[in-house]
UniProtKB/TrEMBL annotation:
This is MerR family transcriptional regulator. Keywords: DNA-binding, Transcription, Transcription regulation. It holds the Pfam family MerR_1. PROSITE patterns: HTH_MERR_1 (PS00552), HTH_MERR_2 (PS50937). InterPro entries: DNA-bd_dom_put_sf, MerR-type_HTH_dom, MerR_fam. It comes from the Bacteria. The keyword Lipoprotein does not apply. It comes from Streptomyces coeruleoprunus. Residues 1-68 form the HTH merR-type domain.
Amino acid sequence: MRIGELAARSGLTKDTIRFYERIGLVTGKRLANGYRDFPPETVTWLVYVRTAQTLGFSLAEIARHGEDLRDAPDSAEALSTLFEEKIRVIDARMADLAALRADLEARVGTGCPLRAAERAAARVPDA
């Protein structure tokens, strides 16, 4: 199918599909007239890519696991492993954000928040 039809069926723009092709997420062959021709299963794959993005996966992550997932997009075992890995990343990010929030909270009302750490360090006796 040509890129226009693929765009219409997938809900993506032609530019997005061209970008995905450039980064290797989709592959189309060139016809003699220079038009792109994509296999019908590309629609399913593009829906999968968009769903993965809404679940927080980056295009790089999708591309890194794309070969395995394209062959078995409904594999519960493969997907569960990826989801568990993503949950660990999210948990680590949440811990980092909680620490950042606590640091910002400690600096509220201290005058210059950038110097609050200096004052705190100056009050701590050396061991």
